[in-house]
Design a protein that fits this description.
It is a single chain. By secondary structure, the protein is mainly beta. 9% of the residues lie in helices and 40% in strands. It contains five helices and 45 strands. The strands form 14 sheets. The chain has a four-stranded mixed sheet with strand order 1-7-6-3, with no helix packed on it. Helix 3 (529-547) packs antiparallel against helix 4 (556-578). The longest helix has 23 residues, at 556-578.
């Protein structure tokens, strides 16, 4: 077998030397001729050398094409001249080697593809393919993107081996809707060809609507009418078709709404009356939504403040306030603080306080003052409960708005009583002459009413509840009712009992601390007033002399002279009285009980009788004529029930009213 390699690029007429056949015979039996199997590309020829030798050659008759036939097999036959004819054959195997005579060819001149813009990075978009009929390195194709545009080179990449085009970056329909890419295929022999790739980007709803504020009023008055424009906005969606079709609305329960005012333009207006006192500011949330699938939306918040107008008057928490102030308070001390609330703001809420109505203008102008800014009420002077129990004032609160609004309230200042007054004894008067006596009949039975101490207290309540006590270290012939002040005999008198008794009565109130006062009552036990009168006077003088003896020892002589003169005078007066008629003694006894000042009568409501007892003492010339008139209240009410009280005192609501009771003693 003869193997010959030749390039398909070999020119016709080219010769290829073949090996000659050998025949051992000689003469006519030796090799005479060669023949070649029939074919269209090759023929046989001879080459004669200079020495006359003949060589066999294979001659190329026409161009070769490896892509058409990459090898040829020919049979070469050698024949001799003998008889019989002897032949010999040889196989000629002609291998056609490739020559880079073919360009790469794309399967398509133009590639078209549509992809969604939201495909992931490094996603395969399409694959281009080119063929090369050459062989070997001449058929190795390399793919490239033939462009210098940065947007394409940054967005796409191609696999140089297989022609696969992938996304290198994110695709964005809104940035570019089409891409035209030139793709080149080059073989190993540097032959290249190009194709066009058209990439269409399909829109997806990947853009939310954009809201922009073109005009905004961030402060509007609370009295704005419905329909007042608050803001103008513009809405834009970069997507297309339904993905870019936008609807707008105001979210939440707010007094605002949105209205369209043209293509992609909207206005926000008020839809109801605003009230700053209810809500002073609003955050208006605007939502824009497209019609894509899935739907995309965006929100924008507008802050809006409501400016105040003076539409609220100051308001007090109560229509009437009550303050309790103890009497004898310190001047300048705070009595009460009153405050009003104004729902407005800034100057519209600044409040000024004043007193516009006074129950007693002259009184309050000197007793009460008010801070116009803080609403604190001060006492300019001390209060006296015994003069003023209650003060009513009207206070006005006025704001600083325009026009100004105001409201008023009443303040009752109740003066609380303190125990600052001692009891006052109305009968017997502490300032009366010590020569006045209470005559007690010797024949009085146990428990007989012989006198009554009448007292009052200018205070009120517990401070005016009076209690009566006898101050004595020895057992006394008399007792006193703790609540009524009635003095009664403690037992039937005996002959050994002293004729004259000085009773000290202590009257105490129920205040804290307690206050008291006392009075001395001279009790004379007798059945004959004429017989005891000189002795009473003498005994009275002696007692006074003895009680003061240790204080007046240095003037003893003068005191003795004074007592002597006093005895003479009393004797003369006594005889003078004996010569007088009955009416003279009546006038004397009538002076034993002083008349009560009518101004005190309305105040006898706390722990005392409404009217004092009245005693009428009569002296007759007949010692056997004796008369004692006991207490007789009106309406036949028992004397013992004049006052209904417990151990703690007498409440004014339980006090019954009685008229004066007259006690008449005649001797």
């Amino acid at each position: 077998m003869i193997r010959i390699e030749m390039s398909e690029f070999t020119s016709p007429g080219s010769r290829f030397l073949l090996q000659n056949a050998e025949d051992l015979d000689v003469g006519i039996n030796s090799l005479i001729s060669y023949t070649l199997s029939k074919n269209q590309y090759f023929s046989l020829g001879e080459k004669i050398s200079s020495d006359g030798s003949v060589f066999l050659e294979l001659i190329l008759e026409k161009p070769l094409d490896r892509e058409t036939q990459d090898k040829h097999e020919l049979i070469l036959t050698a024949s001799d001249g003998g008889n019989p004819l002897q032949t010999g054959t040889a196989l000629i195997n002609i291998i056609i080697t490739d020559f880079n005579d073919n360009l790469p060819v794309f399967t398509q001149d133009v590639y078209k593809v549509s992809v969604r813009e939201n495909i992931p990075v490094n996603s395969t978009i399409l694959r281009v393919s080119a063929n090369d009929e050459d062989k070997g390195i001449n058929a190795d194709i390399t793919y490239t993107i033939s462009t210098t545009a940065n947007d394409i080179l940054q967005t796409f990449t191609i696999n140089p081996k297989n022609g696969e085009i992938k996304s290198k970056g994110h695709l964005d329909y809104e940035m570019s809707r089409f891409y035209e890419i030139a793709v080149q295929a080059e073989d190993g022999g540097s032959l290249a060809t190009k194709a066009k790739v058209l990439i269409e980007i399909l829109d997806v709803n990947d853009n939310a609507p954009e809201i922009s504020i073109t005009s905004l009023s961030d402060l509007i008055p609370e009295d704005s009418i419905p329909g007042t424009v608050v803001a103008l906005i513009k809405v834009h969606d970069r997507d297309s078709e339904e993905n870019g079709d936008v609807q707008c609305l105001v979210k939440g329960d707010v007094p605002f709404e949105i209205k369209s005012s043209g293509s992609n333009f909207y206005k926000i207006v008020t839809k109801s009356i605003l009230d700053r006192e209810e809500l002073s500011s609003y955050n208006i949330t605007i939502q824009a939504s497209d019609k894509g699938s899935p739907e995309m939306s965006s929100r924008k918040v507008i802050s809006l403040h409501i400016s105040d107008i003076n539409d609220n008057a100051p308001v007090f928490e109560k229509s009437e306030y009550t303050s309790f102030v103890s009497e004898n308070n310190s001047p300048g001390a705070s009595l009460f603080s009153i405050q009003a609330r104004d729902l407005d703001s800034v100057d519209n809420s600044k409040i000024t306080y004043s007193i516009i109505n006074r129950s007693n203008e002259d009184l309050l102008s000197t007793y009460i003052s008010m801070n116009p800014v803080t609403g604190v009420i001060y006492a300019q002077r001390s209060f006296d409960y015994e003069k003023h129990q209650e003060v009513n004032i009207q206070i006005i609160a006025k704001d600083n708005g325009y026009p100004s609004l105001n409201s008023s309230t009443i303040l009752r200042i109740c003066i609380v009583d303190l125990n600052d007054n001692s009891p006052i004894i109305l009968y017997p008067s502490p300032e009366s002459d010590s020569s006045i006596f209470e005559i007690v009949p010797w024949t009085s039975e146990q428990g007989s009413l012989v006198s009554k101490v009448v007292a009052m207290d200018a205070d009120s309540g517990h401070n005016a509840w009076l209690s009566y006590f006898l101050q004595s270290s020895e057992p006394s012939l008399f007792t006193i009712d703790q609540h009524t002040g009635e003095i009664r005999t403690s037992h039937v008198f005996q002959e050994r009992d002293i004729m004259k008794h000085g009773i000290v009565v202590l009257v105490k109130d129920n205040g804290i601390p307690s206050r008291s006062t006392s009075v001395t009552i001279n009790m004379v036990i007798t059945n004959n007033f004429h017989q005891v009168l000189p002795e009473l006077n003498s005994q009275s003088n002696k007692e006074e002399s003895q009680s003061n003896l240790q204080f007046y020892l240095v003037i003893a002589l003068a005191l003795i002279s004074f007592l002597f003169m006093l005895t003479v005078i009393i004797t003369v007066v006594s005889r003078y009285r004996e010569s007088k008629s009955f009416t003279t003694f009546g006038s004397m006894t009538s002076s034993l009980y002083p008349q009560v000042d009518p101004r005190f009568i309305p105040q006898f409501n706390n722990g005392t009788l409404p009217l004092p007892y009245s005693y009428d003492v009569c002296v007759t010339l007949d010692p056997n004529d004796q008369e004692f008139a006991f207490l007789k209240p009106q309406h036949n009410v028992p004397v013992d029930s004049l006052l209904d009280a417990d151990d703690s005192g007498i409440e004014s609501k339980n006090v019954k009213t009685y008229s004066a009771v007259e006690t008449k003693v005649c001797i």
